[in-house]
Write a structure and sequence with these properties.
The complex is a heterodimer of chains A (110) and B (352). Chain A is an alpha+beta fold and 110 residues long. Helices cover 30% and strands 19% of the residues of chain A. Chain A has a 4-stranded mixed β-sheet. In chain A, a hairpin with a 4-residue loop joins β2 and β3. Chain A is globular. Helices cover 36% and strands 13% of the residues of chain B. The chains are: A alpha+beta (110), B alpha/beta (352). Bound molecules: iron/sulfur cluster (SF4) (2 copies). One iron/sulfur cluster (SF4) binds next to loops of chain B.
């Protein structure tokens, strides 16, 4: 093999979420992590992380919570619903779908 | 406090069906009888997970030559470590890949030497291209993330356009266009492999044109100009002893895959010490960690926290002193060593 840089890039995801208007968006999407992407708790760094080829993404606690609900069964709206129950008063209705779409744009959710 | 490593490069064997003249394995290869056994690797992966490693590249040589590869994958997976197989593709049948995926393998990186069978086989030193094409189909069919790795040099850079076309045709998700780094066998082949500046300029334009054409779609093209060409030192592995551990087939633990070349490094072995002790306490891993060891011009340079003075192995290979500023850096007093254009030379294939 060639000795290129074998260290994974580390970056941060899920910092803040700009509210987006989702009125009229199809609610049929049942997000799940794409094949080859692994979500786990990193006990050493005390953080949720996403693992993928050549890359590690450290997630903030909210991002980790949302992605853990992406099981391919719940719709995006249902995920927002679960979180609304857990965090009454938080603006999950707009923030969660916006976050999910950004993660999908990264190619991590399908 | 010493931050934990993210990644482990597990060189499971130096044995390989190919003979690539740019191989980064050391000139003195570890023979089969000296290799770590299954139980050793299982323990190492367990210790790695505890230490904070979350990713392992299972590499070599050719890792498929290890009959216990699935057990090793399962051990990594059991420690929560994401595994990527780094393979020449020789011997990657659908049944074998299925066995590995079942054991927990998460992704595959396949190497290819050039765009056509004739030229790829010439560089590999054996007929392998058709097997690689079949391996690519197998990986595609499995649905695992599929990376292609092409080491670039004087003999294939002029076909970069066709190489990228091949990656598109084979359905790769990601292509690493890795310019040869002159360590190990590549250094033996400096004359034959050192590209010209014109080749590099043309290649960079080719990559940009393809990136535009692909418009963010697959495959993702990873291209890094070689350090000697732009005069900017690269932070090898994110800095010595900062993000990654290499374990060689015989258990030697190294801060970087090429570091076995450095005389007097006295690298520890996983047979003798737990990985945590090696990472946190060994002199070899501490030697060039951080910035305290640096000479001038690095010591007073604002870039020192970004590139950590470049590659120690390259400094050693070119100047005989691993503690000098990387000659690839344009501020290095040794920079002239990497500036000379090399006349083409004959190819020396990796043996055995
Ligand atoms: S660079 Fe070539 S010869 Fe060296 S291990 Fe990789 S495939 Fe084998
Ligand atoms: S002098 Fe040292 S720290 Fe500064 S850019 Fe060059 S290699 Fe990096």
């Amino acid at each position: 093999m060639n000795a290129d840089e074998r260290a994974p890039a580390q970056d941060q995801a899920g910092r803040g979420a700009e509210p987006v208007d989702h009125a009229g968006r199809a609610d049929a999407w049942r997000p799940r992590l794409r094949r080859g992407i692994m979500l786990r708790w990193d006990a050493v760094r005390e953080s949720d992380i996403l693992l993928m080829p050549e890359r590690v993404v450290m997630l903030n606690p909210q991002a980790g919570q949302i992605l853990r609900l992406c099981d391919g069964e719940r719709t995006a709206a249902e995920i927002a619903g679960v979180l609304a129950e857990r965090f009454p008063g938080a603006p999950v209705g707009t923030e969660v779908p916006a976050f999910l779409e950004r993660v999908r744009d990264q190619g991590w959710l399908g | 406090m010493i931050r934990p490593p993210w990644a482990l490069l597990a060189e499971l064997t130096h044995a390989c069906p190919l003979h690539c003249p740019y191989c980064s394995n050391p000139l003195r290869l570890v023979r089969k009888p000296a290799e770590l056994g299954t139980a050793d690797w299982t323990r190492v992966l367990d210790e790695a997970g505890e230490l904070g490693v979350v990713q392992a590249h299972l590499s070599g040589g050719e890792p498929l030559l290890r009959p216990d590869l699935a057990e090793i994958v399962a051990a990594a997976d059991g420690s929560g470590i994401y595994t990527q197989l780094v393979t020449s593709g020789v011997g990657l049948t659908a049944a074998r890949l299925d066995e590995l995926a079942t054991a927990g393998l998460r992704s595959v990186q396949l190497s290819v030497q050039d765009a056509t069978a004739a030229s790829s086989d010439r560089i590999a030193g054996r007929v392998a291209f058709d097997g690689k094409r079949r391996a690519a189909e197998t990986v595609r069919a499995s649905g695992l993330p599929f990376g292609l790795n092409v080491v670039l040099h004087r003999l294939n850079l002029d076909r970069l356009d066709e190489i990228i076309r091949l990656a598109v045709d084979w359905g790769a998700d990601r292509v690493e266009l890795a310019n040869t780094q002159f360590h190990g066998w590549a250094l033996r082949n400096l004359g034959a492999l050192m590209p010209t500046r014109d080749q590099l300029d043309a290649a960079r334009a080719t990559v940009l044109a393809w990136q535009e054409r692909l418009g963010g779609g697959a495959p993702e093209l990873i291209w890094v100009l070689p350090d000697w060409a732009d005069g900017v030192a690269k932070p090898c592995m994110g800095g010595w002893g900062s993000t990654s551990i290499t374990v060689a087939p015989d258990g030697t633990a190294l801060p970087c895959p090429s570091a076995s070349v450095i005389d007097g490094l006295d690298a520890p072995n996983v047979r003798d010490h737990p990985l945590r002790r090696i990472w946190e306490e060994s002199a070899a891993f501490a030697r060039y960690r951080g910035t305290d060891w640096m000479p001038e011009p690095c010591r007073s340079c604002p870039a020192k926290e970004a590139d950590f003075g470049g590659c120690r192995c390259q400094a050693f290979a070119l100047t005989g002193d691993a503690a000098r500023t990387d000659p690839a850096c344009r501020l290095s007093p040794d920079h002239h060593l990497v500036q000379a254009e090399r006349p083409a030379g004959p190819l020396v294939y990796r043996k055995p």
